[in-house]
Amino acid sequence: MTLTDDKRQKHLVREQFTRTAEVFGDFAVATRVGDAELLARMVGAKSADCAVDLASGPGTLALRFARHVRWICGLDLTPAILLRARRSAQTESLANLDFALGDAQALPFADGALDIAVTSYSLHHMPDPARVVGEMARVVKRGGRVGVIDIRASEDPQVAAMSNRIERLRDASHTRSLPKSEFEAIFAAHGLRILAQETREQDRAFRHWMLVAGWNPGDREFEETRRLLESTIGEDSAGFHPRIVPADPAEAGEARDIHIINTILFLAAEKV
User: Fold this and answer.
1) What's the pTM?
2) Percent of the chain scored above 90 by pLDDT?
3) How far apart are CA 228 and CA 225, in angstroms?
4) Closest Cα partner for 207 from 194, 191, 218?
């Protein structure tokens, strides 16, 4: 990826998460507590540990890890969503948590400075996810732990390609979801031995899935994403397992909705 492409991708990320800082932040902080606590257990977070949550967004991981570690820094590219995260930390009186503006591809920590590096739902926004994992491996000490939560793509390249096409219609800052085999290869290439992994399926209502991306019925992005997703229902050609369900009675004017399944991969590894 060229420098111009890298700058463009960072602009797309900042634009997306500035526009959705509140709606996405409210959703992620409220509904992903279980994800964060599971990853904290998987990486063996302890009271003496110092950690970083990179591409931390609204503090999805950092707000929970702060309850388990000595200190954690939440690092993100987008000032608006960092402001949202800082408000949460203040409300929850978390004194061992800092948030800072920074790039996940060039972490501002010395080699081996930390015990834990984690990230959630971020690698599919990265132009070079292997570089990010390499940075995570660099900043943890030998025996330190790295933890990742992200959308898992199908091992079938055609299914993965359609899934990523739909994701990019929904969110222009999406780059590519990775299959499990690619995650494993990236970890191995950076001297990370996988300690634990888990896959979970998350049921999502299409309307809400689009809402937290900043779109409503009638928006071009909403309608185009829905049309493409509906075209995959017969053969499940994007791996979302879409199904038509009656709409929420509270959603006036809507007779039906689509529910999808996001397949989520949790990985915890040790630097060897």
Assistant:
1) 0.94
2) 93
3) 5
4) 218
